[in-house]
Design a protein that fits this description.
Layout (H helix, E strand, L loop, with lengths): L7 E5 L1 H5 L2 H12 L3 E5 L2 H5 L22 H11 L15 E4 L16 H7 L2 H4 L3
Parallel strand pairs: 1-2
Antiparallel strand pairs: 1-3
């Protein structure tokens, strides 16, 4: 809950950052009353999931010190192979990680709909559906 109980954290990889996807999603969130905070994935986030031996590819948990919500984003990028499609790659793939731990509600109470309103606005889902 880096940003409290009401905010979704959004993090772009390099190709998505070039397109300013997180900034655009934050603007859509502002329109819909579904706030986002932009965060960055850093080198040390990848270091925290690096395996201690040659027998693993990646650690699913941080060996610390981690920076809260960033190391899960680094884990998903590394374990999925997206790290091979970053800025320096011929085939760049944009990836944006949403951390809804703070905005999704506090278990076991009812969950919220965050970040769905902002995603609907960002991708113009109602316009695509003809509504």
């Amino acid at each position: 809950r880096t940003y409290g109980n009401n905010y979704t954290a959004v993090m772009d990889n390099g190709p998505a950052r070039k397109k300013q996807f997180a900034q655009e999603l934050q603007k859509a969130g502002d329109v819909m009353g579904d706030p986002f905070e932009i965060s960055r994935i850093r080198r040390e986030d990848y270091d925290s999931i690096a395996p201690p031996t040659e027998y693993e590819d990646v650690l699913q948990v941080s060996k610390g010190p981690e920076r809260g919500h960033q190391y899960p984003a680094a884990f998903l990028i590394k374990s999925s192979g997206l790290d091979k499609h970053d800025i320096g790659s011929k085939e760049q793939l944009s990836y944006t990680h949403l951390d809804i731990a703070g905005s999704g509600g506090i278990y076991p109470k009812n969950p919220t709909a965050a970040p769905i309103p902002a995603l609907v606005e960002q991708f113009e889902i109602f316009k695509l559906a003809g509504l």
